[in-house]
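Risk mitigation, structural track. In case the binding assays with uridine-5'-diphosphate-glucuronic acid fail to produce interpretable data, a predicted complex structure has been prepared as a fallback.
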Amino acid sequence: MKISVIGTGYVGLVTGTCLAETGNEVVCVDIDAEKVQKMKDGEVPIYEPHLDVLFDRNLKAKRLNFTTSLEEGLQYGEIIFLALPTPEDEDGSADLSYVLGVADDIGKKISEYKVIVDKSTVPVGTSEKVKEVIQKNAKCDFDVVSNPEFLREGFAVDDFLKPERIVIGSSSEKAIELMKKLYKPFVRSGNPIIVMDEKSAELTKYAANSFLATKITFMNEIANYCEKVGADVDMVRRGMGTDSRIGKRFLFPGIGYGGSCFPKDVKALHKSGREVDYDFQILDAVIDVNQKQKTILLPKIQAFFNHQLKDKKFAVWGLAFKPETDDIREAPALYLIDELLKEGAEITAFDPEAMDNVARKYSDHITFSKSMYDTLDGADALIICTEWSIFRTPDFGKVKKSLSNNVIFDGRNLYDIQDVENEGISYYSIGRKD
Ligand code: UGA
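Fallback model:
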């Protein structure tokens, strides 16, 4: 099939590349000429495991193509994916100006039947708005489909190629058949393609992300409570997670969720509720608790150093909002670092992928190290903010030798308490006995 993808951000690029991988001919459109040229030259603009291999293969096979011309993109595909940004407005709602702007062009420029697929995370009712905007100028037949993505950063290629489910929101039989044909190669294992109306599909995405954010936040509160009563959240997590109704995943407490999706989507759903006079009280609490959770290590650090953080030197392992990404949007590490800097502390950090992104934001305030162990030179304490695999089995002997105060504050519960304490290092983590 001929496919166009408008927008080559993380979702658009993964979608375009993976659709080319199953033999479709794909044209990806972006307004950023420099980025388009780089992609044409074989450069993948984002860090996403395995994407480079697929990108390279499909680019060379000429199934994956790039252009800055929206007109070319709109003429090309039988199916046109909109993978455009929906940034958070000042009031927490999703800004639809990119999506509706392109919809306006679609109406003016298409001259034969097209399926317009909304892949961006958009509020309930957006498909209807897109349809209305296209309809204003359309000279031919078209359908609008809501097809939310459930890709996790760091696993996006795998999630696209082997999805647990595909959600298609549409009221047009013709569009549904085309979408099913397109996705057939990805659901050979029998995972479902769930067809529903557009609004339900749009809400499915917000509901899924908000539920997961709530699950994590609930566990964070249980962890905080464990500390008060002397229980161990690791045990509680295992005890709960074996109940198949609860499930083992997304029960890991820590210093809060971050990233470009959960924080934005929870706020947007909360805001959309308000617009129809519905108060999502549970989401209000999730937003509030998560914000506090990002700096939950601070009181432990302050208590350890008797509230004297001025000129204390902290080594920080992990800056990205989670492992396997260089994304630092809403990263808990940065909130904690901000608080430590305010108290006059000095920070030396290491992250396998995210240091360049952080350097752009904090060039004068944070020192970066080439390796995790280099951060420890002259440091008083080690703080762990992201659970990169490389941090999971450190040489504790080396850590102890370098830290002047022999203490680790771990925001991701990476180690057995006993293992660390046997090394003669004090260890503070989340929801476990300190
Ligand atoms: C999330 C969803 O998992 C995807 O299904 C969805 O498609 C995507 O948002 C999106 O809307 O585009 P992502 O933001 O890449 O994916 O990251 P997750 O792996 O879900 O992690 C989100 C945050 O939750 C991270 O900060 C992570 O550290 C935190 N988390 C996750 C926990 O604190 N505890 C857990 O047990 C799991």
